[in-house]
Amino acid sequence: MCRLLNAELYKLRKSKSFYTCTILTVVLVIAMFAVFLTADNIQNGKVENGTGGVVVSISQESPTEASASIWDTIQLMDILRQIFSGDVVALFIGTFISIFVISEFSTGMLKNVVGKGCSRSSIYLSKLLVAMFASFLIIAAGICTALICGRIFMGANAFTDHFWKNLPVYTGLQFLMLLPLASIFVLIGEFFRNLAAGISIGIAVASLPVILLNLFDMKFADSSFTPSQLWPVTRMAGCPFEGFQTEYITGTILVAAFWLILTAGLGMWHFSKTDIK
Predict the structure, then answer these.
(1) Domain positions in the chain
(2) Residue 63 confidence (pLDDT)
């Protein structure tokens, strides 16, 4: 198992898709701060309204008369939440994992690994663990970029004691949901074994359930049950960044455990039963 993990980590270090998706995540975070910076400059009359497609509406005030800074009206945790509020990061992770898993089927490399006598379950598990680790690094790169940009643009006042108290819990919950999400994408890659199909279906899995489950939420609008919170992507997007309740943390653990056990079990079962061509 250790040799398989070392081999997978070596493939990760050589993976261009991993570095590409990590860079894209960093660029996404920087772009978010660039939008806020442009809006702040517009509000203070430094640049023309509409620059870069950013429009600031200030009722009964001209931009030059606005004294409040955009940075004074938002918190760093609000920006961190935006990283997980959509399915863009999930798409990055899904694309990377699809390439990372499926490429070995297309090149025949995985057939050589199986032929060396390694158990199918250990092969799948090592791939899954490294995919989770890589997903962790991609998200961590985005969070670190947000912290650095926050220090540059928002100053030291953004890092309050309240912020440092909530940050570990918030990121911990996000990383917890990241584990089953990575496992879902590994299962898709192992099942379809075609790069185009794997990426396409991975994109659909990252985005379509969010839309469908949000529609189901309307059916239960009068109750406390929200079906969308049973899916990793929507739970990541709806994760609170303060006032964490034991009920929510317990629910997150249960949802993560359910999807992780289900997808990892299905993946190992399917991988052990099907031929590798």
Answers:
(1) 2-32+75-273
(2) 47
* Interacting residues of 137 by C-beta distance below 8 A, sequence separation 6+: 18, 22
The span from the CA of 173 to the CA of 133, in Å, is 16
What pLDDT does 66 receive? 47
Q: How far apart are CA 34 and CA 28, in angstroms?
A: 10
Maximal CA-CA distance, the chain: 74
Regions of the chain short of the pLDDT cut 70 = 44-68, 85-86, 106-112, 114-115, 221, 277
For 214, residues 6+ apart whose C-beta sits below 8 A from its C-beta are 228, 234
Picking from 99, 191, 88, the residue whose alpha carbon sits closest to that of residue 139 is 88
Amino acid at 63: P
In whole angstroms, give the CA distance from residue 200 to residue 147.
32
Residues 183-195, buried b or exposed e (16+ Cβ, 10 A)?
Answer: bbbbbbbbbbbeb
